[in-house]
Amino acid sequence: MRYIELDTPALLIDRERLTKNLKDMQSYADAHGVALRPHTKTHKCPEIAKMQLAAGACGIAVAKVGEAEVMAEAGLNDLFIANEIVGEAKLRRIAALAKRGVKLAFGVDTPCQVTAAESVFAQEGVSVPVLVEIEVGENRSGVIEEADFLALLDTIRACPHVPFGGIFSHDGNSYSAPDLDALRALSEGAQRRTLHFAQLAAQHGMPCQTVSYGATPTFMNHVDILPGITELRPGTYALMDASQGHAIGTPDRCAATVLATVISRPTAERTILDVGAKGLTMQSRTEGICATPGKGTLYDRPETHIAKVFDEHAIIHDPAFRDSVAVGDKVRIIPVHICPVCNLYERAYLISGDEVVQELDIAARGKLQ
Question: Whole-structure pTM over 0.90, yes or no?
Answer without folding.
Answer: yes
